[in-house]
Design brief:
Blueprint lengths: L9 H39 L8 H14 L6 H19 L4 E4 L4 H12 L5 E4 L2 H10 L4 E5 L20 E6 L2 E2 L9 E5 L10 E8 L6 H7 L3 E8 L2 E9 L4 H10 L6 E8 L3 E2 L7
Parallel strand pairs: 1-2, 1-3, 5-11
Antiparallel strand pairs: 3-6, 4-6, 7-9, 7-10, 8-9
Helix pairs in contact: 2-3, 3-4, 6-7
Length: 286
């Protein structure tokens, strides 16, 4: 008959637990190396097919959603979230070297926390003053990412206007993906890249809307199609709004809402899309 844990000498039992920890650590390391071999094969396959973007926001969102749903135990979810974010970011970097350009005009600490939480320390981090500088850097790159506060900062102006042309960078993600009040890198940030030919997440569509003037009924009419005003700024052409719209709605739905609000001449331009945020409150206590 085997002894119970209470019957085993404490020192012997602790040594056995440490052996188990070492075994698990070795297994995790081996699995990461196994993953790198698959990535190596993936690179070879993509090369034969003529290449393709290493960024797949939709797939990344699915991975993070599954992690959040299956997580349980004492290990904090934010630790697991950050580990997987760094794994994804680093293996993407292995496939195609890239840098992350980030706007630190609103304060270095919060943005640095967001960059390191989501991309780790292997991916180069390049600092800029203002969202316009970030967008310009991404536009001139061969495949870098940019990070811009969703509010853009108080003096940033209509920075999203730089995303409107067909070949301009576009919003491809919103971080953090797992949303909760105490998130360690909780500042809402848009991730920007050169336009993706495939694999974009389209749960939420992001539009730039230019108006000749403000109409008081705009918020109520936008609410009817579940659109949200994320930013607004005066321009030489009038008022510019940054709007989010559920992917289940169409640009025509947005146009109809603006027309009902008296803004029939509104100019609507798509500037990106992203996966729907995962609300941590959806997860039952485990």
């Amino acid at each position: 008959m085997s002894k119970t844990e209470t019957e085993i000498d404490p020192v012997t039992f602790l040594n056995q637990l440490r052996v188990d920890i070492d075994r698990i650590d070795a297994s995790m390391h081996q699995l990461l190396m196994d993953r790198s071999q698959i990535i190596d094969r993936l690179i070879a396959v993509k090369a034969r097919q003529g290449g393709g973007s290493a960024f797949r926001p939709g797939r990344e969102a699915d991975m993070m959603r599954r992690i959040a749903e299956r997580h349980k135990g004492l290990l904090p979810l934010e630790t697991v979230e950050s580990i997987w974010r760094i794994i994804i970011a680093t293996f993407t970097y292995v496939q195609a070297n890239y840098s992350v350009h980030a706007d630190i005009a609103g304060g270095d600490a919060s943005m640095r926390d967001s960059v390191r939480f989501h991309f780790g320390f292997t991916v180069p981090f390049i600092q800029h003053q203002g969202p316009q500088a970030v967008i310009d850097a991404v536009a001139k790159s061969s495949g870098d990412l940019g990070m811009v506060r969703i509010d853009g900062g108080l003096s940033a102006g209509a920075w999203w206007r730089k995303l409107t042309s067909a070949n301009a960078p576009k919003i491809i993600a919103r971080v953090p993906f797992i949303e909760r009040p105490d998130h360690p890198a909780g500042m809402p940030v848009f991730v920007i890249s050169l336009p993706l030919a495939e694999a974009a997440a389209r749960d939420v569509m992001i539009y730039s809307v230019t108006l000749d003037r403000w109409h008081e009924s705009i918020p109520a009419q936008l609410g009817q199609v579940k659109a949200e005003i994320l930013g607004n700024a005066a321009t030489d052409f009038g008022l510019s709004l940054l709007l989010s719209l559920p992917g289940t709605k169409t640009e025509d739905d947005l146009r109809q809402a603006l027309r009902k609000a008296g803004a029939a001449n509104a100019r609507i331009e798509l500037v990106g899309s992203h996966a729907a945020r995962y609300d941590h409150s959806q997860i039952k206590d485990q």
